[in-house]
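Posting for a labmate who doesn't have an account.
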Amino acid sequence: MGKPTGFMELPRAERRYQAPGDRIKHYREFTLAPSDIEMAEQGARCMDCGIPFCHQGCPVNNIIPEWNDGVYRGDWQQALAVLHSTNNFPEFTGSICPAPCEAACTLNLNDQPVTIKSIERAIIDKGWEMGWVKPQIPAERSGKRVAVIGSGPAGMACAQQLARAGHEVVLYEKNDRIGGLLRYGIPDFKMEKIHIDRRIAQMQAEGVRFRPNSNIGKDIPVQKILAEYDAVVLTIGSEKPRDLEVAGRNDYQGVHFAMDFLRQQNKRNAGDTIADEVAISAQGKHVVVIGGGDTGSDCIGTSIRQGALSVVQLEILPQPPEKENKLLTWPNWPNKLRTTSSHDEGIKHRYWSANTKSVTGKNGIITHLNAVPVEWKQENGQWQMSEKPDSTFTLKADLVLLAMGFVHPVQEGLLQDIGVELDGRGQIKANEKEYITSVDKVFAAGDGRRGQSLVVWAIREGRQAARAVDEYLMGASELPR
């Protein structure tokens, strides 16, 4: 694949961004598009490694060496065909996936993996530019009807695959626009929503019907859905946020869940007006973000763009090492320190091994957050946390954003009404082969089944669930797993 000696002759080229001082003035994507020649050189670096561990690292099992080779040789259309054979939405993953495929690349043993994510995004951008992305309309219709509930990446992938198999598919979404957390959880500066809109248009041409503003279990009875469809797929995500149970949490205004904050800004970007009495803004405030993951990073970038006076981030876990031990981790996803583009935009400080103790305020409004450093020790195979004595510290805090992850799907309403069995973590119980739940003809995929995860895992689950539904309805399926 690629040029046999390319990895020795050509260095890895990282993504280029607008300067922080320029990009924080807007909410658009700020990655600078590489040239075709630059991408061809990066594709040339894909070595003939014998066993492409990148396949294993990619949850959708992208056939990465083949489309790298296509870009190297200038056959972009063939590269796009190979890419689409495993991934319905490479513009989603090419924008926001953390690229476990690159961690698994053989060249990562020397810290110089192929720029797989950048090449992936370049291929799909070229595909849209050249008009190569077209609807795949089935030659025959099955006469079977499927309801997909939840329009995030799992729901969109599942619906598209089932429509291409010839089924009549209706995709329900409780919010006013299609896209789930892609629409309202991912900031526009990481992925603009034109990417979702173009896919919606493609899927409509393929026969998918979209029903936003449709909260099943609230607006539409669950029994009506079960009666009208031959199969139902739950792709509702994991939206129950982990809360902060400390003194003062409910006594002072100014503590909010990250998704409430991010959703509002995405709505503003879409042209909506947020009422003053419910608006959450970081403008002119000292912001504390609790949680060290991607959602916390998104809160940092959004707060800085809104005009925060300062932004700090707290993480309860220890600071990871700056570099992993390749002999212990490769080709698996390593635990190491990651600094995002949002961190480069002006965060004041990142606190590690810090546990929030309380929030305090004045006249019902938060003014400070009190925290304490902690130490982690392993005892009897379990990690135990203990507070450092006499070390409590206080941070100015006009706005605290809780980005501590999600515990399970929302269980009230739909899940309770439909009666599916839940596992010990509160997720929808369904195995990874049939994806069927404890209720006949009801399937589940995505974060609501596997737990909070990556967009690329959601796409994989949606595709595989579609095949399982097709087999259930027709006795066999030609859809890929």
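Reply:
Got it, the structure tokens are right above this. Residues 455-474 form the longest helix (20 residues).
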